Structure formats: structure tokens, C-alpha cells
Amino acid sequence: MGFCRINGCRTVRLIVLLAVASMAMAACGDRFTDVRPPDSERIVSFAPHITETLYALGVGDRVVAVTTYCDYPPEVEELETVGDYMNPSLEKLTRLNPGAIIVQGEHGKVTEYATHNAIPLYRVDMDTIDTIRDGIYIIGEAVERKTEAEALWSDIESELDAIRNAVAHRSPKSVLLITARHTHDLNNLYTIGARSFLTELAELAGGENIYGDVDQAYISGSKETVVMRAPEVIIEFHAGESLSDEAKARFISDWDQLGSLPAVQNDRVHIVMESHALRPGPRITDIARIMAQAIHPDVELPDQ
Amino acid sequence: MKPTMSRTRIIFALVFITGAIGVASLLIGTETLSPEQAWAEWQSGRPIRECPTLSILFYQRLPRTLTAWLAGSALALVGCAFQALLRNPLATPYTLGIASAGALGAWVATVFIQGTVLWVTVWTFSPIQASAFVFASLNALFIYLLAARNPRMAPSVLLLTGVTLGMLCNAGILFLRYLAAPDRLVVMDRWLMGGVDVVGFDIVRTLLIGLTPCAILLLAQSAKLDQLGFGTELAASRGVHVGRLQAVVFFVGSLMTALVASTVGPIGFVGLIVPHSVRAITGSRHRILMPVSLFCGGAFLCFCDIIARRLLTGETPIGIITSLFGGPFFLYLLTRKRFTDWET
Fold first, then answer.
1. Residues 64-103, chain B: which have Cβ within 8 Å of A?
2. Quick one: angle between helices B286-310 and B318-334, nearest 10?
3. B121: which chain A residues are within 8 Å (Cβ-Cβ)?
4. What secondary structure letter does DSSP report for B33?
5. Torsions phi, psi of B28, nearest 5?
6. How far apart are alpha carbons A13 and A135 in whole angstroms?
7. Average pLDDT for residues B62-85, to the nearest whole number?
8. Domain with CATH 3.40.50.1980 in chain A
9. In B, residues 169-188, which contact A (CB 8 Å cutoff)?
10. pLDDT of res. B66
């Protein structure tokens, strides 16, 4: 019994000690995570559309590292890469000693790293046209280019308006937007719902997404629904791929299996290969233009 | 071991259930079809492919019903045969790592072959399916060469080899996932959940041609599999050529699994719960257990596919449905008394 009591006493002492130690560490921790003043001379971008925004704001020379998927403007190819969204390289990040990190959405690992190392972290959620605007403003503020950000957005907005006005007198055409189809069958069709900027862009370009009523960004679409909603135009994104004319023709001819669709009967299946086609960045005007041309090929669009 | 229902009643019930689910599978879908519209389209004389309602019926619901039925019946039959072969109630068509190897093949195709000259469709096989099939078959061959060189396969060695190879394949998949571009991750993850939402009859034809002779061959072994249940020694003494039986069941079962997993993805659970559920009704004699499992497996997957179409907007992966609905049902069955049958 005596042994037990001594032992119990030790345990209590140990617990108290640990509690004190952890409180002390927590107190230190508070000081530890005080964020350094932003040194926006050394920016790390964690998404292609963030990189594009930084360059569009004229601070490309201050970007030190980007992700492996960033490919625009071409000079980013020479920059260091810090992995990608899924697999960020924290060691590389440490070596680069960034002054500011900009991420898209929830980014657990990098957020934790930035907090721990007191690096200013900016988060954008660029998914819809409104949040793309907000994102551009957030980035503008982060790099002290507020006026440029406002100017950039007003340029984007006026170009989107110009495209909208050009097709406004046409009755909207129903559109099916397809993302990520790699095999020549129509199994597992991935399409885009209301929560994506692509639905908004399609509407602006004189179309109406047949899945625009579904409150999701991406949906595994049912082909029965596709047949019943009978899209007049199909836009299939092969972003970043370089398909030969032959390969493109094959992807288009796959749709013959759904021969009742007006889009198929009238040869209105379009393949879009631009690498920024699914990127919610400053070049959405380009995507809107491509969509408007696909949906209303006979309408003349204003010059850029 | 005594059947708990008379054979005619079982056959009658089976035909009825299969027929009813088949008809339901044609009538129930994401979209509600109007009979008047279908009739008007039929009268119009236009090609079926160009009529919305008729094309949904003939080119979507009919092939996917048949695909689900063929895949489900094959998985249930192979599950039944593998449980006898490995003498293990936990055995499924995927226990020997065949589906994992198929999935690895699908990943290899997506990561390495896509965009190269090898990315071609062979007969009705897409590159993903072809690669999945090749990997799954190689896995089976490898297990055979490694574990089954002896005249009689030891179920434990077969199991260990299969499970180890399955783990190796899963490690390979994780590595390829790491290498793959994010847009491909989505596509491949979807593939891994299985799906029978085919358009047209290409896959139905592939499955029908590939699975029918295999199924007949497996069903022909049913009496011998009963003998195997008493142990290899006893089976051999009763005139069963055990080595040959094991090789036939192993290869035919693996081939069927490879074909199903590569065409519709690794749909889980069917091969486990259907044979066990059926065993609770018919008893353990393979001559009746195997054909009944075959019918019930088909009907079960058809039923799950109907739910997959209606559950959410768009297509719900069928692999999720089989586990989500099959799992609780199986747990319920396990609480029933009849379930001690395996022990006897």
C-alpha cells in the first residue's frame, strides 16, 4: 500500500509539472505566432489563378515560387516550385523563406506551417464571379496594389459586360458543360453545377447550363437527365491537353451514342483545350469569349 | 445441410424476383418517362437513337440493367466458389487481390499511358479497362505460379499470397495517386467506386461473351465443391481430382472477377453477402447454392443500381450503395439463427 501511495504521489507531481510546462509552452506559443509584418517582396502562390492574378497586378517580379501547375505567364516556368495543392513541399518553403503565402480555400498543411512560422498567409476562395472579384481585391491588398486590383477588376467586368451585351439579343441556348472525360465512352460523366463560375460564364455568354439548377460545383451527371434536358450545345473541357484534330474528332463522335441531343444532331459539340479554361482567375474573360463563340458562333464579339 | 425451402418454390420465387427487378429497372430511373411520349416516338418511325424517351429505354436503361445483372451474378457466383475453394467464409472475388491489381492497372493506364500512342481502344475495351484486365489476369497468374505449384493448393498459402499481392497493388495505387494530376484523381476515384451507367451494348456484349462460358464451367464444378467442403483428403478419396478442381475454380473465378472489375470497376460486397444470404435460405449444397446465388447476385446489383439512379441528383456510385444497403442487411442476417450453417 505504501508503495502505491508514494507512486500515486509521484504521478500527481508529474501531472502538475506537465500542466505547468504546457501552460508555459502555450504562453510562449502566443508570442511565437505573432505574425511578422508582411514582406510582400517574397510571395509564394499556391494556385495557378493566384499566380495569374499576381502577374496581372504587375507584381510578378516579387513572386519567388509557384505550384507545379502554374504555367502562365510563361516566365513562371523559371520560378521555383513548392509542389502542388495536394503535396506542398514544406522544406522548400522553409528554404525560400517567403514573406507572404497566398492560398486558395482550406489548406491545412500550409496554413499550419504559416501560423507556426509567423508568415503572413492570405486566403482566397475564388469559385464564382463574385468571389473571383473578392479574391483579386484580397490579393491586391496583400501586395499593396489596391488601385491596380480595382482597375484590373473593372477591366474584367467591362469585358464581361461587352460579351454579355453582344449576345443579349439572342435567346439563350441550353448548354451541357463537361469536365474531365478521358476515355471514349460516356460512363461517369462529370458536369458542372450552379456553384461554379463556369455556369455564370455560360449564362453571360448566352447559354443556360442544363445542370445550373443543382447547387453543387461538380456533379456526376445522369445521361437520362442529359437526354431529357436535350442540350443544344455541348462544351467539353480538356484543359491543358493538346489533342490532335483526329483525337478531337473522336471525342466529338463519342456523343453520337446520345443521338437524340440537338447538340449532336447539329454538330454543336465543342472541345476546349486552353489550359486556363477551368481557372477562376483574371482570364475568365477569355473563357467567356470562347463560350460565347461556341454557343452563338454567328454573333460578332467586340475586340478585346 | 437440408434445404429449408423446396426447390420449385425457390425457382418460382427467383424467376419472379429477377423479372420484377428487371422490369422495375427499366421503368425507374433518374427521369420519369411518359408512355404516351414513348408511343408517339415509336409511331414516328424515326431511328430509336434519335428519340429521347426510346433511346433512354433501349440505349441506357436496358444495357445498364443487363450490365448490372451480369456483373452482380458473376460476382456472387465467384464469391460462392471462392468461399468453397479457400474454405473461408470471408472469401470474396476480391480476396485474392484481383480487383486491387485491376485498379492498379487502371491507374497505370491513367498516369502513364494516357496521352501516348498506346491510348487506344481495343475491341470494346477502353485503355483503362484493357490495362485493368491485363493487370488482374497477371495477378492471378502470379498467384498460381507462386502458391499453387503443388499438386494441391493450400488455401492458406493461396490466401496469404493473394492478400499480400493485393497490399502491394494498393501501395502502388497510393504511389500513382501521388504522381497523378488532380483532375485525373477525380476520374480515377470515381472509377474505384464502380458504376454500371453504360450507354449502348458494347460492355454488355463483352460481359456476356466472357462470362457465360466461365459461369457454366463454374456451375459444372458444384458437386465437386461440395466434396471439397469435407476436406481435400476426403474429397480425393471420393474420386475428386482436387488439384485440377482447384486450378479450374481459381482460374475461371479470377478471369470472371478480372473481367467484371475491369469493365464496371471494383464493386464490393456483392460477392460476400449474396452467397451467405442465399446459403441461409437454400443450405450449403453448391448444386443449388451456386445457381441461386447467380440469380440473386444479378437481382441485388440491379436493385442497387435503381437506388443509385434515384438517390441523389446525378449518379451515385453503385459501389457505395452495395456496401451501404448490403452491409446492414448482412449484419441483420448474421443475427439470425440459420446463419450457423457454415459451421456445420
1. none
2. 130
3. 184
4. P
5. -105, 130
6. 52
7. 94
8. 43-144, 171-295
9. 178, 181-187
10. 95
Do β-strands A207-209 and A173-179 pair in parallel, antiparallel, or remain unpaired? parallel
DSSP percent split of chain B into helix, strand, coil, nearest 5? 75, 0, 25
In a domain, B2, yes or no: no
The residues, ordered by sequence, that sit 6+ positions from B283 with a Cβ below 8 Å of its Cβ are B1, B2, B3, B4, B289, B341
- What pLDDT is recorded for position A4? 47
Instruction: Write out pLDDT tens, residues B232-242.
Output: 888 888 888 88
- What is the reported pLDDT for B25? 92
Q: Tell me how many domains chain B contains.
A: 1
Bigger pLDDT: A8 vs B72: B72
Which residues from A are below 8 Å from B200, CB to CB? 257
User: In the CATH scheme, what is the homologous superfamily, with its name and number, of domain A43-144?
Assistant: Nitrogenase molybdenum iron protein domain (3.40.50.1980)
Average pLDDT estimate for B101-123: 78
Task: Identify which of B49, B197, B316 has the shortest CB distance to residue A223.
Answer: B197
Which CATH number goes with the domain that contains B89?
1.10.3470.10
Domain annotation covers residue B11:
yes
Check A220 against B200: CB less than 8 A apart.
no
Domain that holds residue B77: 7-343
- Cβ neighbors of A125 (< 8 A, separation 6 or more) are A104, A105, A131, A134, A135
Across the interface, do B182 and A225 touch by the CB < 8 Å criterion?
A: no
Q: What was the pLDDT predicted at B1?
A: 44
Is A33 in a helix, a strand, or coil?
Answer: coil
CATH of domain A171-295: 3.40.50.1980
User: Cα torsion at B184, B321, A191, A139 (round to 10°)?
Assistant: -70
**Is A185 close to B115, i.e. CB distance below 8 A?**
no
Count other C-beta atoms under 10 Å from residue A284's C-beta.
Answer: 24
Q: Which residues of chain A register pLDDT less than 50? A: 1-4, 6, 28-34
